[in-house]
Specification:
The protein is of the alpha/beta class. Helices cover 50% and strands 14% of the residues. It contains four helices and four strands. A four-stranded parallel sheet has the order 3-2-1-4, sandwiched between helices. Strand 1, helix 1 and strand 2 form a beta-alpha-beta unit. Helix 1 runs parallel beside helix 2 and helix 3 runs parallel beside helix 4. It starts with 5 loop residues before the first strand and ends with a helix.
């Protein structure tokens, strides 16, 4: 059912995102693995996906920044001609008590965890 589908997984380099990307690849999907800081882990994931006989590309970018989302989709378009599946998995947090969090901390969390859904959905609808 997922054979020859193309998926973009955000936060794909580690944890749940990595597991989802591998599961999609095992089901027959080609995978674009978005990451923010984990380049080596993203490349390792892509090597695993390719070993399964699927296409894979690592794409750096922050899902909470509009221009970066545009760049993610532009890079995606250089490798794939369509997008069938979008998995918004990227997440971030600040491990501090709320009273110690700065406005910058709060914005970072909200942009990565909530605004990203809107940005990705719009980009998927327009460019995917």
């Amino acid at each position: 059912m997922l054979e020859n589908q193309i998926a973009l997984v955000t936060g794909a380099a580690r944890g749940i995102g990595r597991a989802v990307a591998l599961k999609l690849a095992r089901a027959g999907c080609d995978v674009a693995a978005n990451y923010y800081n984990s380049a080596d882990e993203a490349e390792s994931l892509c090597a695993e996906v390719r070993a399964l006989g699927r296409r894979a590309v690592a794409i750096q970018g922050s899902v909470g920044i509009p221009d970066s989302v545009d760049e993610i989709f532009a890079e995606f378009g250089r490798h794939f001609d369509r997008l069938d599946i979008l998995v918004s998995n990227a997440a971030s947090g600040v491990l501090k008590p709320t009273v110690e969090m700065t406005l910058k901390h709060c914005r970072w969390c909200m942009e990565t965890n909530a605004l990203a859904l809107n940005l990705l959905d719009k980009a998927f609808a327009l460019k995917g």
